[in-house]
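Suppose you are handed only two things: the residues of a chain and a line of SMILES describing pyridoxal-5'-phosphate. What would the bound structure be? This form records exactly that question and the answer produced for it, so the two can be stored side by side and reused later without any lookup.

QUESTION INPUTS
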Amino acid sequence: MQDGSFPDRVSLGVFPTPLCALPAISARYGRNIWMKRDDLCGVALGGNKVRKLQYLLAQAKSQGCDTVFTTGGAQSNHAMLTAACASRLGMQCILLLKQRGVTELRGNLVLDALYGAQVRLIDTDRYEDIYDEMDRLSKELAARGHRAYSIPVGGSTPLGAIGYVDAVEELAEQCAAQHVPVGHIVSATGSGGTTAGLLLGAKRYLPGVKVTGMGVDDSPFAEIVPTLAKGAAEILGWQFERTADDFEMIYHVGQGYAVPNAEDTPFLEELARTEGILLDPVYTGKAWAGMLKRVQSGGFSDRGDIVFVHTGGAAALFAMDLPRA
Ligand SMILES: Cc1ncc(COP(=O)(O)O)c(C=O)c1O
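ANSWER OUTPUT
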C-alpha cells in the first residue's frame, strides 16, 4: 500500500498487470526470464505511459485544466495514450507531433483520431520549437476561458516517473507471492521516466535488484535517469542515494531512433511464436533483442532472475514493416 507521501493519482488502467513466466524463452536461453505485462494495462493497446498519466492527469485535473497538450514523434505511443486517457477524463487533447517518421494515417495516428485528439504535425527536429508553440496555443486557449496542461515528451517528469515506483511496488508483491528471486529489471529507455521510476522503486521495494535501461536513442540516459529519479524522490520526501551497481544503461539503437533493426526481427518472431507476445520494432523489440544478446554473451548472470518490463508499443506493427537481414 502507498504511504501518505504519494501525490494524487487518478485511476486509468487495470493494475496490477500480470507478472508472467516465459517458459519457452527461459528454456532456450538457459535463464529464468519473466515479463511484467504493462502492455496489458487496459487502455488502448496498453503501455508504460498509463502509469505516468495517472499522476500527470491527476495534477492537470487538480489545477482545473480542461485541455491537455503533449508531443512526440508522429507515431508516438505516449501521445496516443495521452489522447486515450484525456478523453476518458473528459478533457480535450491536442497533440503537437514532429512531422518525422511515418506520418501517413497508420498505426498510432489512426488511434489518435479514434480517441478524438486534435493532431498537428509540425515540421521541426527540435522539441523547443514545439514547446514554444504549446505556450502560444495555451495563451490563446486561456484568452477563450480554457486552461491547458502541457506534458513534455514521453511524460518523463519526476511526477510521471512515480508511476514506475508504483510498478516496482506491485512487482515486489508479485515476486514474493510467485516466489520469483528477481535480480534484474530490464526495460526500454526512450525519454528516461520509466527507468527512473524503476530505479527509485527498486531501491525502496526490491533493494539489491539492478535496473538496466536499454537505450533506444543516443540521449545521455546515464545522467537523465538518476536526475529524474532524484526529482521523483524529492516529491515523495525520500532519500535517493546511488550505489555503484544499482543501474546500468545499455544502448541498442542500430541505425537510429525509430528505425527498426533487421537483426532484431528474429527475436520478435521468436517471442511471438513461442509465447504469443507482441513486441514493437522501436522500443520493446530493441530492448528485448539487446537484452537477449547480452544474455547470450553471459550478461545478467551475477544475481537472480530477469524481469523484462513490457512497455507496450504494438501499434507500431501497423505503421511499419519488420525488416529482415
Ligand atoms: C512502447 C514504449 N516503450 C518504452 C518507452 C520508453 O519509456 P520512457 O520514455 O519512459 O523512457 C516508450 C516511450 O515512448 C514507449 O512508447
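WHAT STANDS OUT: The chain has two domains: 19-48+157-318, 49-155. DSSP finds ten helices and ten strands in the chain.
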